[in-house]
């Protein structure tokens, strides 16, 4: 036991301060507690080494890990540390004896020259001068006459509380008997009863003995009341405590306590009724909801259906009936946002701006005529169609920002159950509302921009067809009364602006496709990819990897090499991953090579960072070839060239097709052979060749599936060349569907095919006459300047342009 402290010698001295979060030390009592704070540990270590007293003070905020001068309460207790034990987790277990109340003054920080603490600062502890606060005691007879009954009440209440918690330990009885004054007795009791921290600090701060006694008696009385309520509640509920109801005991106790105290948290059902009155849902819906709330109130606690009904009420009351956010439509703002977030895509941006402008005109007209603006904002449901990575989802997000609408995205890819859209009936176990209603609830308004992503990948099975449910969602004439199975009444979706995205239209059912206005996004050209990478992707990855702008830069030539040799895509996702890889390479060099400050990647440096090129684009032959023609193809990752080879040899007139050709392409080859055979005399082919020779048509890259009709004129050209012995002029590629009569029909993917032609070094391309009107709109200006684009109507024109005379054949 520490020696008795001489309080007078402590006046004017700085003592270490021990800040505690939720624990108070009272004079005349012992407190055992655990310490993990570095600041508190340093104070204890200093006090032990100096064999000095310590001031135990409560923190203002219990969650401050490194308390400073301003984080301490004003009143504390001078104490003497008795025992300190090291814990396995690095903390300290401390036993401290309280000596006297004090007020801390001149608080200062004592910084130690040791290793840094976990927060990066040097270790420190706090010191302060104690100003002693002895108790104020009124020793008059009048005060004594009031004090004595209160003292007896205090002791009686304390004994009841102690016995209620079990047999009173002998140590507690010994401490109270040993107390030589009423002040000491009150301090011991205050330290033993589990009062709230705020009440404990109030008792510690009260200097007047009589006032402190009254407060303590009142607190003990409140503790007794809580105990008696709990005891009575336990007695009254004994007959209800069956096996299933035992789990609900704690909740029932809380409810009864709230009713007894009168100032507890508001009743759940009352809150529901308040929310119902504030809701703007139709009155007919309110009537039904009120009935359900009344039914929930009559249900016994723990009844199985109660949780189902409660979940339904929570959903209904959370739906934003009539909560329409004002739409800020500005064509200039929309253009600014689209130009900021997306490079290129001029035709797409133009269509989006037309969409925004029409909505603004409708809204302005409605305001002029005194109508609800939302009543005229019904419009087409846009479907952004294009290959992966071209910016469909980000365009929808930009439109939401431009219109000032909440943005909600729901991916329907892989959804195969109609209930995902319409919800389950709430009679089923585990029933949930449909994802459409859930998204509207999460948006918090009834007019968000709702993106249905990957709508072409939605499926169906025996649980129902989700696309059929989407018909109602996406039809402006029907979605004002959308009915979710879980909700059980209609919800108005007419104010929602729906936008969908897809990669392939062939998998979308016709009735659903009929409700969509299609906006096609083709792949980016290499020029556009360079700009996107330098303006958006590279800065984004530099920031994401913690680099500085001057630590990584890529020249335009290097970026072109990266795009052509290390990516094969219509969009830019793979390109962004390559940018991330370069950032990682630079980060490793910065961390491992001394003196390295960054890289400026030139064209010749690309392979040092990324290794050898992964993709190669075939260059067309520079010399004339017999039986070989170059076509242009569209793929999911952009355009490509297609080399078609034809050979013939003695046989029985069979046609052999190789190169994994699809059904349509095989039929194109048969049609091409029929055309060439019908024009043998004009082309200069010996008629006997068709009967005495087998013809073999091969399209290289045999492992890659190929299909489509647009290679028709290319196959016919290669056949005519091989069978006539006339070489095909170099530097020419072609695309077009061929009929038996020799007509050249239009094709798609003109932009991608022209980009592929330029990349392969082609000088001239032949296209169908009917595609001529698309050149200015589809083909980038840079490509138009470098390519000769020749329209053709008939296969005879093609052969006249590309086949050399026999005497022109190159050896």
Question: What structural class do helix, strand and pairing data support?
Answer: alpha/beta
**Order of strands in the sheet with most strands:** 1-3-4-5-6
**What percent of residues are in strands?**
15-25%
How many strands, which pairing sense, and closed or not: the largest β-sheet?
5 strands, mixed, barrel
* Number of DSSP-assigned strands: 24
Give the helix proportion (percent range). 40-55%
C-alpha Rg (nearest Å): 42 Å
Q: What best-fitting shape do the alpha-carbon axes yield?
A: elongated
Average pLDDT score: 84
Description:
The protein is an alpha/beta fold. It has 29 helices and 24 strands. A 5-stranded mixed barrel has the order 1-3-4-5-6. The radius of gyration is 42 Å and the shape is elongated. The mean pLDDT is 84.
Which keywords apply here?
single chain, 811 residues, alpha/beta, five-stranded mixed barrel, five-stranded parallel sheet, 24 strands
List the helices and strands and how they pair.
Elements: E1 15-20, E2 30-35, H1 38-50, E3 54-59, E4 72-86, E5 92-111, E6 124-132, H2 141-164, H3 170-178, H4 182-192, H5 197-205, H6 209-236, H7 249-261, H8 268-278, H9 283-298, H10 304-318, H11 331-341, H12 346-368, E7 381-385, H13 392-403, E8 407-411, H14 419-422, H15 435-443, E9 449-453, H16 466-473, E10 482-483, E11 490-491, E12 497-502, H17 510-513, E13 516-520, H18 526-544, E14 552-554, H19 556-566, H20 573-592, E15 599-601, H21 606-610, E16 628-635, E17 638-650, E18 655-658, H22 663-678, H23 680-683, H24 689-692, E19 693-698, H25 712-724, E20 732-734, E21 737-738, E22 744-745, H26 750-759, E23 764-768, H27 775-778, H28 781-786, E24 788-792, H29 795-802
Parallel strand pairs: 1-3, 7-12, 7-13, 8-9, 9-12, 14-15, 18-19, 20-23, 23-24
Antiparallel strand pairs: 1-6, 2-5, 3-4, 4-5, 5-6, 10-11, 16-17, 17-19, 21-22
Helix pairs in contact: 2-6, 3-4, 4-6, 6-7, 8-9, 9-10, 11-12, 11-13, 18-19, 18-20, 22-25, 25-29
């Amino acid at each position: 036991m520490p020696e008795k402290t001489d309080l007078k010698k402590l006046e004017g001295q700085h003592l270490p301060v021990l800040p505690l979060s939720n624990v108070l030390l009272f004079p005349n009592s012992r407190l055992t507690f655990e310490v993990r704070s570095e600041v508190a540990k340093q104070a204890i270590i200093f006090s032990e080494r100096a064999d000095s007293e310590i001031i135990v003070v409560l923190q203002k905020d219990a969650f401050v890990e490194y308390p400073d001068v301003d984080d301490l309460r004003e009143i504390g207790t001078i104490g003497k540390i008795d025992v300190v034990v090291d814990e396995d987790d690095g903390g300290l277990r401390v036993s401290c004896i309280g000596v006297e109340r004090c007020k801390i003054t001149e608080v200062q920080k004592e910084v130690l020259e040791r290793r840094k603490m976990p927060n990066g600062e040097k270790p420190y502890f706090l010191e302060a001068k104690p100003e002693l606060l002895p108790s104020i005691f009124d020793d008059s007879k009048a005060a004594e006459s009031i004090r004595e009954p209160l003292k007896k009440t205090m002791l009686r209440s304390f004994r009841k509380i102690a016995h209620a918690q079990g047999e009173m330990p002998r140590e507690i009885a010994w401490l109270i008997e040993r107390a030589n004054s009423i002040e000491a007795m009150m301090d011991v009791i205050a330290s033993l009863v589990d009062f709230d921290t705020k009440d404990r600090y109030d008792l510690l701060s009260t200097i007047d003995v009589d006032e402190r006694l009254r407060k303590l008696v009142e607190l003990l009385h409140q503790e007794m009341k809580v105990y008696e309520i709990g005891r009575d509640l336990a007695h009254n509920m004994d007959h209800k405590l069956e096996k299933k109801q035992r789990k609900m005991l704690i909740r029932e106790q809380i409810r009864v306590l709230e009713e007894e105290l009168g100032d507890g948290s508001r009743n759940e059902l009352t809150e529901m009724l308040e929310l119902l009155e504030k809701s703007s849902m139709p009155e007919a819906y309110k009537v039904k909801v009120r009935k359900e709330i009344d039914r929930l109130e009559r249900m016994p606690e723990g009844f199985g259906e109660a949780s189902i009904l409660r979940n339904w009420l929570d959903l209904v009351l959370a739906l934003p009936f009539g909560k329409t956010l004002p739409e800020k439509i500005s064509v200039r703002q929309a253009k600014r946002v689209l130009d900021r977030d997306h490079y290129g895509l001029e035709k797409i941006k133009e269509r989006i701006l037309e969409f925004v402008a029409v909505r603004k005109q409708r809204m302005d007209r409605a305001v002029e005529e005194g109508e609800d603006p939302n009543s005229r904002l019904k419009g087409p449901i846009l479907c952004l169609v294009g290959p992966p990575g071209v910016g469909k989802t980000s365009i929808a997000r930009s439109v939401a920002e431009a219109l000032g609408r909440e943005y909600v995205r729901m991916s329907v890819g892989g959804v195969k159950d109609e209930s995902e859209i319409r919800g389950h009936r709430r009679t089923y176990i585990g029933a949930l509302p449909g994802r459409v209603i859930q998204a509207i609830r999460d948006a918090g308004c009834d007019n968000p921009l709702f993106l249905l992503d990957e709508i072409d990948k939605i499926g169906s099975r025996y649980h129902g067809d989700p696309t059929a449910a989407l018909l109602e969602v996406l039809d402006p004439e029907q979605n004002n009364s959308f009915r979710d199975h879980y909700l059980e009444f209609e919800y108005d979706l007419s104010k929602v602006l729906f936008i969908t995205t897809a990669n392939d239209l062939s998998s979308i059912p016709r009735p659903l496709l009929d409700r969509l206005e299609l906006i096609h996004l083709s792949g980016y050209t290499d020029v556009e990819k360079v700009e996107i990478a330098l303006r958006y992707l590279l800065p984004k990855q530099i920031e994401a990897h913690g680099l500085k702008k001057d630590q990584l830069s890529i020249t335009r030539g290097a970026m072109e090499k990266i795009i052509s040799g290390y990516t094969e895509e219509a969009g830019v996702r793979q390109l962004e991953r390559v940018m991330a890889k370069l950032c990682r390479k630079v980060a490793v060099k910065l961390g491992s090579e001394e003196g390295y400050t960054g890289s400026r990647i030139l064209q010749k440096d690309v392979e040092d960072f990324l290794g050898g090129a992964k993709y190669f684009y075939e260059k067309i032959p520079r010399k004339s070839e017999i039986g070989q023609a170059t076509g242009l193809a569209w793929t999911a990752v952009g355009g490509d060239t297609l080399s078609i080879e034809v050979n013939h040899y003695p046989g029985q007139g069979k046609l052999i097709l190789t190169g994994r050709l699809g059904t349509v392409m095989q039929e194109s080859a048969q049609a091409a052979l029929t055309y060439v055979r019908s024009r043998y005399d004009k082309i200069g082919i010996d008629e006997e060749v068709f009967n005495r020779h087998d013809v073999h048509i091969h399209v290289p890259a045999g492992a890659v599936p190929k299909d489509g009709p647009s290679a028709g004129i290319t196959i016919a050209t290669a056949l005519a060349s091989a069978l006539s012995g006339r070489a095909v002029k170099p530097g020419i590629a072609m695309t077009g569907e061929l009929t038996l009569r020799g007509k050249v029909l239009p094709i798609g993917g003109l932009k991608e095919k022209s980009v592929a032609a330029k990349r392969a070094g082609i000088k001239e391309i032949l296209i169908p006459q009917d595609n001529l009107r698309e050149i200015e709109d589809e083909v980038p200006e840079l490509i138009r300047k470098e390519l000769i684009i020749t329209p053709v109507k008939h296969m005879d024109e093609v052969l006249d342009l590309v086949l050399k005379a026999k005497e022109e054949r190159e050896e």
